[in-house]
Amino acid sequence: MENSGKARVRYYETYADDFTRSRDQSCRIPSDYQWIRKESILSDGLYAALGWAGRLYCRAVLHVRIENPALLRAGSKGGGFLYGNHTQTLGDVFLPAWVCHPRRIYTLASPANLGIPVLGSLLPYLGALPVPDTVAGMRNLWAAIQRRLEEDAWVVIYPEAHVWDYCTEIRPFSAASFKFPAKLGVPVYVMTTTYQKRRRGKKPAITVYLDGPFHGDDTLPLKKRAEELRQRVHACMTQRSKASTYAYITYEKRT
Fold this sequence. Notes:
About 30% of the residues lie in helices and about 25% in strands. By secondary structure, it is α/β, with parallel strands linked by helices. The strands form 2 sheets. It has a 7-stranded mixed β-sheet with strand order 2-8-7-3-6-4-5, sandwiched between helices. Strands 1-9 form a two-stranded parallel sheet. Helix 1 (about 40-60) packs across helix 2. The radius of gyration is 18 Å and the shape is globular.
């Protein structure tokens, strides 16, 4: 794979290493957190404004091109899950809103994101669904996901969990997040971000591939159904990742 000649190297110990951290990494979900918020002029306006700004950012700054852009617009009614590899700190906030337009997105996110100055307080209005660490919180998250799917929205999940900027490989991820579509019987789509050399500039261009739908095998018990979905999504991402031909940042395991 070609690189910039001066590609930055980041060393990791495990795939759970964080290279992007918020100012308040230990931020917790408030006990009175409103999981299902009624849409308002404020939230609709913020979503629309940041949606257009995000599309401009993806096109002009990240140089994104989308393959098969009509796929998600043709998705069945009743909403769906969109899984992607996590390789852009800001781009992964805006990109799914672009590819899923005109339907709203709701994205599973670390509670640490709520601690980001200014933006953190706006994220719940923009569709962030923080992942809780309590049984009661998980019940609330399940209820919020079901409600949004009933509204024909998309639920976005980055199963790698940690942002590794410009990473060209697909990291291992667990089947935990696949229990949602496996249990709810909702289709799964895949969004794979890949990187190519540009004629000018050191930063690469981005090609995003959309694939699916994938459906859970109803003949399997829930745990195996989720694992089977995980394997199919990981295989799809891995195959698409072969379209990455340029490394801007490389990741090497620390020895």
